[in-house]
Amino acid sequence: MFYINGSDIKIPRGDSAVIKFTLTAGGEPYLFAAGECAVMTVSDKDTGETVIEKSTDAQDEEGTVSFVFSASDTQTAAGTYVYTLKIVGDNGSAVDTVHGFPAKSAFTVG
For the whole model, what pTM was predicted? Predict the structure, then answer.
């Protein structure tokens, strides 16, 4: 079972989870333009090394995207990491940082 406190996420090591974010712009659902997707990157808080990266181009009509973390994804070393959520265009460049740098939130495995 995973826990969310504000924007911080905690997943027990070896557990799976589906983490959902609802994307909005100006109070309205943000729906991807052609070729866009959402990318969630979990990184070591000290080195910045990417530990887990998930992407999805699927969203519902309310702008909600889901990232599926399997038990093998969370077999990483126990500890606190940080995550960033970005909208990325078809050329791979970030269209917008939805959540993350410089205000990265905790992603704890343990």
Answer: 0.85
What is the extent of the structural domain holding 40? 3-109
Q: What is the CATH number of the domain that holds 32?
A: 2.60.40.10
Number of domains observed in the structure of the chain: 1
Residues 6+ apart with CB under 8 A from 17: 2, 11, 68, 69, 74
pLDDT in tens, 39-90: 999 998 888 899 999 999 999 999 999 999 999 999 999 988 989 888 888 8
45 C-beta neighbours (distance < 10 Å), count: 15
Longest dimension (CA), the chain: 38
